[in-house]
Protein 1
Amino acid sequence: MFLWGTATAAYQIEGAVSEDGRGVSIWDTFAHEPGRVRDGHTGDVACDHYHRWREDLELMTELGVNAYRFSIAWPRIQPDGTGAANSAGLDFYERLVDELLAADITPVPTLFHWDLPQALEDRGGWLNRDTSGCFAEYAGVVAERLADRVPMWITLNEPFVHMAFGYAMGVHAPGRALLLDALPVAHHQLLGHGLAVQALRAAGAGQVLITNNCTPVWPASGSKEDLAAADAYDTLHNRLFNDPILLGAYPDLSAYGAEVEVRDGDLATISAPLDGLGVNYYNPTRIAAPTADGLPFTDAGVTGYPTTAFGWPVVPDGLRELLTGLAHRYGAALPPVYVTENGCSQPDELTPAGVDDQERIAYLDGHIDAVRRARQEGVDVRGYFVWSLLDNFEWAEGYHQRFGLVHVDFDTQRRTPKASYHWLKRRLAERDDTFRR
Ligand code: FCB
C-alpha cells in the first residue's frame, strides 16, 4: 500500500511545554534567548496540539490520508535525557497511536526531530559521543511501550540540517557556530541511529527508517572551481549521511580538515539494514566556489523559478532528479524510499471564504507528479508525506512561515482547512492507479 500522509514535529505543534513532567529541550532554551527566533516567538503554546490532538486527528481522517508522521518529544519521555521513563509522556503518544490505528491511519513516529533534552546539551549534546548511547536507551524505552503497535519507525529527522543549522551555523538550537568543527555531530547522530536500530529491533519493532534531507546539487558553472565546490557540498549534505548508512563507509572528508573519530565497529552499527530510506525534499541547491573562509563552497542561489514565501525555489522536477539520482548512486543498496516531507510556505491569507492557496496546490501537484515519474523510471518510492498538516512553529522563523494544509489562527487556535486540503482530499479519493503497487 502506498503511504499518503501528512507530517509534523513535536516542538512545532505540541505546546504544553511544562505539562505532565516534560523536561526542558534545547529548543525551549534557544527560543527564549533574545534574538534567536524572529519576533521572539517560542513553541510554548504552538498549535496546542497536546490538548487538541483529537481535533487534529479528525482533520486527518476527513482528509483521507492513510499515514501520519509525527515526532516523539524525548524530554516528555526522559525529562533529563536518561533514566526512568516518565509514564505520562508515554501515555500521551500511546493514546495518539491507538486512536490513529482505530482510524486506519498508520502511525509513523520519528524519535528525534531536534528537541534534545537540555540536560544532554549541557554535557555537549551531539558533540559528545555518549549522546548516541543515550538516544538508543530512549529509543528502547519508547519501543518497549509501543513496538507491538507501531508498524514503522523513523530514528532521526534530517541529521544534516541539525548539524548544519544547529552546530555549524548557529541559526537553530543549540546555537553553536562551529563551521566544519561541527562534523563530529554527524558521526554521533549516525551512531545514535545505528544503536537505536538495534534497540528497536530488540524490542520487536516492525519497519525502521531514517529520514535524511537530500538536495540535488547543481554547479553554478562548468568551471573547475565551481564543480569542485558542488562536489564538496554534495559530499557534506547528501553523501555524508547516506553513504555510511547504505554503503557502510564515509565519503572522503580529508579535504575538509575534519577530525572525526570513527571507532572499530561504528560503521557496521550505522549500516545495519533498514526497511526504507526517508527523504525530505524542498529544493535543489546551486553551488559556486567559496568566497569566504571557513566553508569549501558558496550557495549561489537557484534562479529562474517561482519561489515560496520562504524564498525557496519551486522545482518539482528536482524531486524526480533526486529520487532517480539516489537509485543511480546506490543501486541495490537503496531500500524502498519514502518522501517523508515535501511542501511549501505561502503568504496565505484567511478570508471569510477560507484560504485560497493555489500556489500550494500547484506545488503539491507538481511534486506528486515528480514522484509518479520517478516510479515510472523504476525507483521504488512507497510513500509521500506533505509537510505539514498544520501551520506551525517554523523554527527560527517562528510563526511567520505557514506550511499547513490547515490554517491555524494562533490567537484562537481555530483550524481552517485551506483550498489545498480540499484539493488533496479529492485527489486521495480518486485512488490514482499509478500509485498502486
Ligand atoms: C524541514 C524540517 C521541518 C520543517 C520543514 C519546513 O527541514 O524537518 O521540521 O521545518 O523543513
Protein 2
Amino acid sequence: MSLIVQKFGGTSVGSIERIQRAAARALATQQAGHDVVVIVSAMAGETNRLLKLASDIAPVPDAREMDALAATGEQVSAALMAIAIQAQGGKARSFLGHQLKILTDSAYTKARIKAIDAQRLHEALGEGKIAVVAGFQGVDDAGNITTLGRGGSDTSAVAIAAAVGGECEIYTDVDGVYTTDPNICKTARKIERISYEEMLELASLGAKVLQIRSVEVAMKYGVPVHVRSSFSDVPGTWVVGEEQSLESVTVTGVALDRNEARVMLVGVDDKPGVVAQIFSALAEENISVDMIIQNAPSYGLEARGSSGEVKADVTFTVGKADLPRAKLVMEKIASGVGAVGIRYEEDIVKVSIVGLGMRAHAGVAARMFQLLAAEGINIQAISTSEIKISCLVSTKYAELAVRVLHDGFGLGNKA
Ligand code: ADP
Ligand code: ASP
Ligand code: MG
C-alpha cells in the first residue's frame, strides 16, 4: 500500500459540485488500496477577495494580519472537503496548519516551511481516514498563522509528500505542464516528463502551474510530482529528475510573468557601497529583487552631478505586490545614495525561454532577440542564466511575445 498526496487547486474546489467530485476521486484512490492525504486551496477567487478586503482598508496592511485573513480561505475548503468525503460514506478529518503542525519561519505572506510534524496525519490514516489538510498555511514558533506565498498550496502538498514519503498529484484546471501557458497560446503542447531544473525555471519565470518552492522541495527530496487535470483521467505531466526526463531539446518552454514592476533610481552616486545600501534596505524589508541593471559610465561620457561627481542609474524589478513597500524603502534611502529621481513602471512583463539544451547550444539568445525584433517588440532589459533567457517588454506585447517565441523555437503542436 502506498501513500498518495492529492492537491486540489482553487478551480478544482471552486464550487460544491467540484468539491464533491474531488472528494469522490480521493475516496476512489483510497478504495484502490492507498492511504490518501488531500491538500486543498481556497475556493477559486477567494484569496483575491480576502486580500482586497484588507487593501480596501489600508494600502499596506499589516503582514501578520494579512496572513490571519488569507488563511481562512483554505480553512473553509478543508472543512467542506472533509464533509463531502463523509457525505459519500468515507472517513475524513481536516487539519489546519497549526493543528498538524506545519512549522514555518515568521516571514509573513511568504513563509518557508521548517518542519512538518506528521504524527497526527499518521494517526488519522491509521484510523482509515482521509486526512484533509488546509494548504498555503503554517504556524511560526510563536504560534502566529503564516502563509506560504501565492500558489503556496502546491508547496504544502509537496512538503507533506516529502514528510510522509508519498508521491504527489497536483490536480488543476489544465491537464499538465505545457510548453507555454495553454490559455495564451493555442499551439502549446503538453510535456510528458520535465526535469525539476526546467520546471524550477518555468515556475520562477511565471508559469504559475506550480509554485516555485514546491519544485524546490520536490527536487530536494526527490518527490515525484504528477501535474494533472481534476476534470479528466488523462495522464498529465511528471516532474522528475534530469536523468529521467526526455531528451534535452534546446528550448523546452516559454514563460510569462506579469507580476513584476520596475524601479529605476536615476543618477545615484557611482561609488562603492551605494548598490549595497540600496539592496540591503530592500532585503531588510524582505523584498525579493529579480533583475538588476546598473549602467556603467564609460570613459569621457560619465553622467555627472552638480558638483562634478560621477552618477549612474540603477534599475531593478520586484514583485508588483511588493511595490508599495519598495516605494517606501526607496523614498527613505533616495537622498542618502544621491539619487536625483525615482521612476516606477508597472506596465511591463517578463517573457522567458527555458531549456536544459541551452547549455550546449550557442546562438539561442540571438535567435530570441531576432524573433522579438521581427515583431517590432522592444526589449527593455535582459537577464540570463545557464538554462534561461528573460526579456522585459511592454505589457501590450505580452501575448504576442509568448506566441512568437513559442512558435519560433518550434515548440508548437505540428498541425
Ligand atoms: P490552481 O488553482 O489549480 O493552483 P493555477 O491557476 O495556480 O491553478 O495554475 C494553473 C494555471 O497555470 C493554468 O490555468 C495556466 O493558465 C497556467 N499556466 C502558466 N503556464 C503554464 C504552463 N507552462 N503549463 C500549464 N499551465 C500553465
Ligand atoms: N489560495 C492561495 C492562492 O490563491 C494558495 C493556493 O491556491 O495555492 O494563492
Ligand atoms: Mg496554483
Protein 3
Amino acid sequence: MDGQEFVVSYDLIVIGSGPGGYVCAIRAAQLGMKVAVIEKEKTFGGTCLNIGCIPSKALLHASELFEEAGHAFDKMGIKVGAPALDLPAMLKFKDEGVDGNVKGVAFLFRKNKIDTHTGIGRITAPGVVEVKPAHGAATTIEGKAIVIATGSDVARLKGITIDEKRIVSSTGALSLPKVPQHLLVVGAGVIGLELGSVWRRLGAKVMVVEFLDRIVPGIDAELARQFQRTLEKQGVIFKLASKVAAIDAKGAVLKASVEPAAGGETTTVEADVALVAIGRVPHTEGLGLDEIGISLDNRGRIPVDQHFATTAPGVYAIGDVIAGPMLAHKAQDEGIAVAEILAGKAGHVNYDVIPNVIYTMPEVASVGKTEEELKAASVAYNVGKFPFTANGRAKANQQTDGFVKILADAATDRVLGVHIMGSDAGNMIAEAAIAMELGAAAEDLARTCHAHPTLPEAVKEAALAVEKRAIHM
Ligand code: FAD
Ligand code: NAI
C-alpha cells in the first residue's frame, strides 16, 4: 500500500466542492451516507463562490449603486454630490461576500459530518481516489461511489497569454487594482457583459468584440437585440462579427488586432486591459480518466447516462464537467439528483426548466424555449408581450427598459418559454419556472392574482396578451 498505514472507506467520495459537489455531499449526508469531499483549493465553494457568481454579483451590486448615486439620486431629490470611488474598499466588500459564503460551506460540511481532504484528487481505480496535497505525501481513500464535480476552467485564445494583470480572464477582471481607461472585452457572452458593465459603471470605456453577428448567443434573439441597444445607450461599444487575432502587450498600452470574423482588413484597438471571455472548458486534467476507461466527448466533457453514471463502474459526474448549461443551479440540482439516485431514490433534473439570468442593469432572464427554437422544431405558438413602460411600478421607479415575453403552445396554451428584460428580471423568472414546472398554461398565469404595484404584474399582463387581452396596453 505504498507505505500508507490505512485506507479510509466512504459511501461516497465527491471530487470538487463547487455548487455541484458541495450540494451533492450535503444531500448524500442527509440521506445517511458517510461522505468525503476532496478540494484542491484552500477554500470550498468552487468557481461560483470564489471567482464566479458571488464576487461578480457583489461588484455588480456595488457598481450599480455607484452609478445610481451618480446619475439617478439627483432626480429623486437626493442630493449627495458626485460619488467618489474607493476601489480598494469596493474590492474588500466583494472579498467579504466571498469569505462569508465559503465559510458557510465549511460550516455546512461540519454540520453534516462530511470529511474534507485538501489536495488534487485522482481516481486510480474504480472506488479508489488518491489525494495529493500541495506539500507532503499523497493519501488514498476508498468509496463505494465517486462523483466527479471538478467544474470548468477559462477557455483561452490561441496565441494570447492571459497574465491576469493586463490580459485577464474573469478571475483577473474581478480584482483589477485600478479602473482601466479603456477595457477591451473579447466575447459578448454573460461574463463579458456582466464584468464589462461593472467596469463601465466605474468609469472605463468599454468595447466588446464578438465573433458572431449578435450578442449573448442562446438568448431569444428579440431580447438580445433590445438588450444590445440598451447597453449601447449606456455607452458600451460593440464590434460584432469580429475577432481579436492578436494582442501586442509589449508597450505601455495593449494593441489588439481586430479583424472581421469572415476575414478582411485588420484594425488596431488600444486598451489598458483586455478581458478574454469566450467561454469555459470542462476541467478534467489530472483526474486519471484514461486509466479507468472514461473517454471525453468532442467538447472535452465527461459523457454520462440519465443517472449521471460514467462508463466506469461506480463513477458519476455532474455540473460544468458534463453536458448542459454551465450554471451553478444546474450543477446543484444535479448534485441533489445523483445523491438521491445513489440512495435508491428517484433523483431527477428537468432540463426543460433551467432559468438563465444575466445580472446587468436591466437584467435579462429566460426559461424554456426561445422563438428560434420553437420555429426550428415546427411548434405552433402564440406570443404575449408586455413592456415595462406600461407597468405602474416600473414607471414610478423610472426603470422602464425592457419587456416580458411569454411563448405558449398554440394548441394547448401551455407555457413553453418566458423571456424577460427588466430591472428585476432575475427574481421575476422564478414565477415562470414554477409555472412551467407545474405544466401551467398562460391562462393560469393570467388568472393568478399579482400584487399591485409590482414588476411581476408585467408577467400577468404578458400572459393576458397571449390572447390579446392585456389591460394596460
Ligand atoms: P466548480 O464551481 O467549477 O467547482 C469545481 C471545484 O472542483 C473547484 O473548486 C476546483 O478547485 C475543484 N477541483 C477540480 N479538479 C479537482 C481535483 N482533481 N481534485 C480536487 N478538486 C478539484 N453561474 C450561475 O448560475 N450564476 C451566476 O451568476 C454565475 N456567475 C458566474 C460568474 C463568473 C465570473 C464565472 C466564471 C462563472 C459564473 N457562473 C455562474 C457559472 C458557475 O460558476 C458554474 O456553473 C458553477 O460553479 C459550476 O459548478 P461545479 O460544481 O460544476 O464546478
Ligand atoms: P459565453 O459562452 O456566455 O460567451 C462567450 C462569447 O464569446 C460568445 O458570444 C461567443 O460567440 C464569443 N466568442 C467565442 N470565441 C470568440 C472569439 N475568438 N472572438 C470573439 N468572440 C468569441 O461564455 P462566457 O461569457 O465566458 O461565460 C462562460 C460561462 O459561465 C457561460 O457559459 C455561463 O453559463 C457561465 N456564466 C454564467 C453567468 C450567469 O449565469 N449570470 C455569469 C457568468 C458566467
